[in-house]
Write a structure and sequence with these properties.
- The chain is an all-alpha fold.
- The chain has one domain (21-197).
- The protein is built from six helices and no strands.
- The protein has helices spanning 18-49, 60-97, 107-139, 143-167, 169-178, 192-197.
- Helix 1 crosses helix 4 and helix 2 (60-97) packs across helix 3.
- The longest helix has 38 residues, at 60-97.
Length: 207
C-alpha cells in the first residue's frame, strides 16, 4: 500500500505511453473540430441577423465585439491541440510515407503542408505576444490597451485557426487510413454553452 503524501510532497501524474498520448491528442483535435464548427455556426447566425444585404453591420461596435468574441473562443479551443500539434503532424507524415498507394489521398500532403504553415504562424504570434507582455511590464499599458492588443492578436490568428478548423480533419483521416479503419465523426463537445448558441445546418460564412 502506498503511504499518503506528506506535507510538501508534489503529486505528479505519470506520463502516458506514446500510443496513449497520440490517442489523447487525436481526441483533443476531434474536440476542437466540433467546437470550432459550433463557434463558427454561432458567428454565422449572428452575422446573418446583424448585417444588411450587402454584408455591412447595423452596429459596427457590437459587430466588432462579437467578432472578437469569436476569435478568442477559437483561440482558446485550439490551445489543447497546439501542445501536441507538432507531434500530430510528424506522425501523419510518417504514416503517409509508409501507406499503401490504395489508401493514399492526394489531398493529404497539401493539407499537412497548410496545417504546418498555419501552426508556424500561430507559434510566431504566441512568441510576439509573449514579447509584448514582457515589454508591458515596464510600459504598463492600460487595461483597455491590453484588451485591444489581445483582440488584435486573436484577429491575426483567425485565418490560421480557421485552417486548422477546416483542414485538421485530415490528421484523423490519415491516422485511421494507416490502420485501415473508418475515421469516426467527432461528436464530443465538452462545452455545452456552445451548443446553445450554435445555429445548426447553416453554411459557413467566414468573414
Amino acid at each position: 500500500m502506498t503511504p499518503p503524501p506528506t506535507e510538501g510532497t508534489t503529486l505528479t501524474t505519470p506520463p502516458l505511453p506514446p500510443a496513449d498520448r497520440h490517442a489523447a491528442a487525436l481526441q483533443g483535435l476531434a474536440t476542437f473540430l466540433v467546437q470550432s464548427e459550433m463557434i463558427l455556426a454561432s458567428w454565422d447566425a449572428y452575422s446573418e441577423n446583424h448585417t444588411d444585404v450587402d454584408g455591412y453591420p447595423y452596429d459596427e461596435e457590437s459587430y466588432g465585439w462579437r467578432k472578437a468574441q469569436r476569435d478568442v473562443q477559437t483561440w482558446r479551443a485550439f490551445e489543447p491541440v497546439r501542445r501536441s500539434a507538432r507531434d500530430l503532424l510528424a506522425t501523419a507524415r510518417f504514416q503517409l510515407r509508409h501507406m499503401a498507394a490504395g489508401d493514399f489521398d492526394d489531398r493529404w500532403p497539401w493539407q499537412l503542408s497548410e496545417l504546418t504553415k498555419a501552426l508556424d504562424r500561430l507559434e510566431a504570434l504566441r512568441h510576439e505576444w509573449a514579447k509584448a507582455r514582457e515589454a508591458g511590464r515596464t510600459s504598463r499599458p492600460t487595461h483597455e490597451q491590453f484588451i485591444d492588443a489581445l483582440a488584435e492578436r486573436n484577429a491575426e490568428a483567425w485565418s490560421e485557426l480557421d485552417t486548422w478548423a477546416t483542414q485538421g480533419r485530415a490528421l484523423l483521416d490519415v491516422h485511421f487510413a494507416a490502420f485501415k479503419t473508418p475515421a469516426p465523426v467527432p461528436t464530443r463537445v465538452p462545452d455545452p454553452t456552445l451548443m446553445a448558441t450554435a445555429a445548426a445546418g447553416r453554411p459557413a460564412v467566414r468573414r
